[in-house]
Design a protein that fits this description.
The structure is a homodimer. Helices cover about 25% and strands about 25% of the residues of chain A. Chain A is α+β, with helices and mostly antiparallel strands. Chain A folds into two domains: about 160 residues, 2-Layer Sandwich (60s Ribosomal Protein L30, Chain: A); about 70 residues, CofE-like fold. In chain A, β5 and β6 form a beta hairpin. In chain A, α1 crosses α5 and α3 crosses α4. Chain A is globular, with a radius of gyration of 20 Å. The N and C termini of chain A lie far apart (about 45 Å). The interface between A and B is large, with 82 and 82 residues.
């Protein structure tokens, strides 16, 4: 423990009871007001983690499958995968590359560069026959939320837009960051030395993903808790957005 | 917010100032005493996240490279990868399968079934020319820590042994669970329905990995903070250990 101070610690607080988010809603205001109502108003330096789903709803990134005409490719792929060809069509439109297609699973690289199942297109927590796409520019969405919160509440917060992605080799989804405002996504120990004097090589931590993951356990899928406050964590300010989290395909052994 | 209660929340507290852990050390006692000394004694229901490194040191899972004679295979692979053939030899001994070998990177499946770089063999935070192997049975290590803490402090805690692993497609390491005692590693929404009445399909969250990740930001690589308390998170009791986090290779599109 450092003398004169306590151990490092931080808190994660769900923002519970947000009303249903409609296209064009003032999501920042809903978050600010709901956090205040539960006696945990946002304060300067808080990290706000917001579910991709409510951002997509606010931005009207919703597609009704009834309005989608699948292309011949989507029809063939849907038949092969045992999936609704209209959904496959939407996924293909959101993708720039197919990474794997097997066992009913479609893993693609989105236009942003994220590799995930179904290009992030999601049917849960949606009206029947509607699907939600990822925000078009999640970093821009995060910055807009931060700016609007500054205007409304007079506080500077960090923002992460998060989604739950699967990963190879391990079961279960984890929350990861797909959009950032204000914080550095990576923390690097490159060039530093450990207590034995040995250079720490290639120790780069994805703190934005770790804090997105930290927020998930209080963000109920069923309880309308699409946002959480991470309070007291040590963060590095940066405007670089989420792009440093994307691995250069040339250095990726798995696509 | 649920009436009569606050929002869901939990806290993450680093256990700072642990002395250097030697083979045979009573790690549980060091943790209990250090936590008490910083005025955050362990209490029942806490989740204790412990770095693999100190568990490996306690269990003497240390190999001096000077004592290792590389096999011809390790010599050839080391030359191809530009890596110390003695280190390659140790990695191969800890592996049951090579998943990828390219660009100086060796990704293998360990005898436990984890897929990670270098079979988890780690040179950082070690004496020069020594490397640390993963614990032989991380679930057993977690149970032993839990049992010893119950004896010493009279409290029942959950335990995760965590290590920082890389992952495909995304830059940066994140902390993940490799050993568990007391908690269920996965939380499933299978068969439940979202507020629109639509069945939530395939929504299984890897809460153990998310909480391991949550602990990392307070576990300094350089500050001798190899353990953290996660206090107040909603956990499901289970004795199934970490195995449910391993994806069945037959259902894995990336090995």
């Amino acid at each position: 423990m450092r003398p004169g101070s306590g151990p490092p610690r931080y808190e994660v607080i769900g923002i519970a009871g947000l009303p249903e988010v409609r296209p064009g809603a003032d999501l920042a205001r809903l978050i600010v007001e709901t956090a205040a109502r539960q006696s945990t108003p946002l304060i300067g330096g808080d990290l706000l983690v917001v579910s991709q789903k409510v951002v997509s709803k606010m931005e009207d990134r919703i597609v009704r499958l009834a309005d989608v005409t699948p292309s011949p490719v989507a029809l063939a792929m849907g038949a092969g995968l045992g999936r609704d060809p209209r959904l496959v069509e939407v996924i293909l439109r959101e993708s720039r590359r197919i990474v794997r297609m097997d066992q009913g699973i479609l893993i693609t690289e989105t236009h942003h560069g994220w590799v995930c199942a179904n290009a992030g297109v999601d049917q849960s927590n949606m009206d029947v026959d509607s699907v939600a796409l990822l925000p078009e520019d999640p970093d821009g969405s995060a910055r807009a939320l931060r700016d609007r919160i500054r205007t409304l509440a007079g506080v500077d917060v960090f923002v992460i837009i998060a989604d739950t992605f699967g990963r190879p080799w391990r079961e279960g989804l984890t929350n990861v960051a797909i959009g950032l405002a204000g914080l550095a996504p990576l923390r690097s120990y490159l060039g530093e030395r450990d207590p034995a004097g040995r250079p720490l090589q290639a120790t780069i931590l994805a703190v934005a993903d770790e804090l997105a993951a930290a927020a998930e356990p209080v963000m109920g899928k069923l309880d309308r808790i699409p946002a959480a406050i991470v309070r007291g964590a040590s963060l590095t300010s940066s405007e670089e957005g989420s792009k440093p989290l994307l691995r250069d395909p040339a250095r990726d052994l798995f696509r």
